[in-house]
Structures are given as structure tokens and as C-alpha cells.
Specification:
11 helices; 262 residues
């Protein structure tokens, strides 16, 4: 009697099973049962080790379990399948942040912000990594940040204002703005809050004590320069569109967070 051939699942059946495992794990994630969720994602990836949805979801699960290294591996595997996958970019940025690789994390948060500027989570990621880098540099150099130094200089300058420049109300006369200050004001009108990001990246590229954290042949300076060039092009675009008007107040823009993937 001939043997029966083992049943081979079709592609459609495999995809359905992967979706079933991921949906079950998604419910476990909502109830914060991360260990159970991890089991489901593992089962899904046993059926297809390159399924992007399962990889990104498991990356998130690993982060919540405190295993940032494994989260990074899953995010990078997903990006190998689709380098522009916005969820994978976000997960890699988050994993790098929790691994303490703040410079690399900043570049991926900026990459995501350029691709999806309406997502507030990338802007929040940029802010927290910038603060982490500044704190790290401040601790290393044991000196005040650039912002603190600028404030101290401004205060010292105002204290040394000659009496001849004081008006009848005992207020110092405002000096005529320099060309650089006028350009900065114009950039703020055109870019809005993005001007702060641009200035930060420009200062980051000039900082002599910044620790390089290049991995996988990726160059931090290259990403920073790309981000600055992108913002310069955006500034020039708005200058041509409406040179005398500022961008709409970003507080009025939609503050959508990252989609509820899990």
C-alpha cells in the first residue's frame, strides 16, 4: 500500500496561520502578557522567518521584555526585507536608544521623521535622543551645555551694556540685528520648529568631542548631513512658495502618534 504524502501547507494557509499567531500575540500584548505574546511571534516566524509584521511585532515585544539587542536584530532583519518600512525604522531607532547608541538612534528617528513628518513619535524620539546626547557629552566633558553657555554669555553681555545705551526707562537699547541673526529669524519663520532640529544637527557635526558610534558601515556624519540638506531644501521650497509668511503654527498640526500596531 503506497504511503500517503505528508500534507504541505499552501502559501495562503501559511499566511493565514502567521496572521492567526500574530493576532493572538497582539491580544497578549494588550493585556501585557509579553511572554505569551513572544511565544506566538516565535511560532509565526517559524513558518516564515522574514515576515515583516511578525519581525517588527516581536521587536516591540523584546523591547518591552528588556531585551534591546534581540529587538535590534529583528528590526534590522525587517529592514533587510524592506529598507523603507516605517515600523521597522521606528523599532530600530528605539532599540538603538535603549542600547545607549544615541547618535545612531538619532539618525533613524530623523530618517523616520523625514519619511512620515506627521507622526509625532519620531519628533519625540528626536527630542529624547538629543537630550541623551547632550547629557552624555556634558557628563564626559564636565562642562555646561552649549545652550547654557549661550545664556551665560547673553546675560554677561547685558550686564556690561554701557550706560550711554540706556534709554530714559533704564532699558538697554536693542542692538541692530546682524545678518546671521536675520537669516536665523527667517529660517524660523520658514521651518518653524524644524529650525531647532536643523541647528542641532549643524552643531552636532561641528562638535569636537562627540563620540562616534558607527556600526554596520553606516556613517553618522553622512546621515546628519543628509538631514541638514533635506531641511535646507525644505526651507528654500517654503521661501519660494511664500517668502514673507511663516509656516502654520506646528501646534495646530495633527499630533498623531505612531499607529496602534500592537
Amino acid at each position: 500500500m503506497p504511503r500517503k504524502k505528508p500534507k504541505v501547507d499552501t502559501i495562503e494557509e501559511i499566511e493565514q496561520n502567521i496572521k492567526l499567531f500574530c493576532d493572538q500575540s497582539k491580544n497578549h500584548m494588550k493585556s501585557r502578557e509579553y511572554e505569551k505574546a513572544l511565544v506566538g511571534y516565535n511560532q509565526a516566524l517559524e513558518l516564515n522567518s522574514t515576515d515583516i509584521n511578525a519581525l517588527v511585532s516581536r521587536s516591540k515585544c523584546y523591547l518591552l521584555l528588556g531585551e534591546a539587542s534581540k529587538a535590534l536584530v529583528d528590526a534590522e532583519t525587517a529592514l533587510n526585507e524592506d529598507k523603507n518600512n516605517i515600523r521597522a525604522i521606528y523599532q530600530k531607532a528605539e532599540a538603538l536608544y535603549y542600547l545607549g547608541q544615541f547618535e545612531q538612534s538619532l539618525m533613524y528617528f530623523h530618517r523616520g521623521a523625514r519619511a512620515r513628518p506627521e507622526l509625532n513619535s519620531f519628533r519625540l524620539g528626536v527630542q529624547k535622543t538629543q537630550e541623551a546626547i547632550e547629557n552624555t557629552i556634558g557628563v564626559k566633558n564636565n562642562k555646561p551645555s552649549a545652550a547654557t553657555t549661550a545664556k551665560n554669555k547673553q546675560k554677561k553681555s547685558s550686564d556690561n551694556t554701557p550706560k550711554s545705551q540706556m534709554n530714559s526707562s533704564s532699558r538697554p537699547l536693542r542692538p541692530k540685528p546682524t545678518k546671521a541673526e536675520l537669516e536665523r529669524r527667517n529660517a524660523r519663520k520658514l521651518l518653524g520648529e524644524l529650525c531647532v532640529d536643523k541647528e542641532y544637527l549643524e552643531n552636532l557635526l561641528k562638535h569636537p568631542d562627540l563620540v562616534r558610534a558607527d556600526t554596520n558601515t553606516e556613517n553618522i556624519s553622512t546621515y546628519a548631513k543628509e538631514a541638514v540638506e533635506f531641511l535646507n531644501k525644505r526651507q528654500e521650497f517654503w521661501r519660494q512658495q511664500r517668502p514673507c509668511n511663516a509656516l502654520p503654527n506646528q501646534k495646530n498640526l495633527p499630533m498623531d502618534a505612531m499607529p496602534r500596531w500592537f
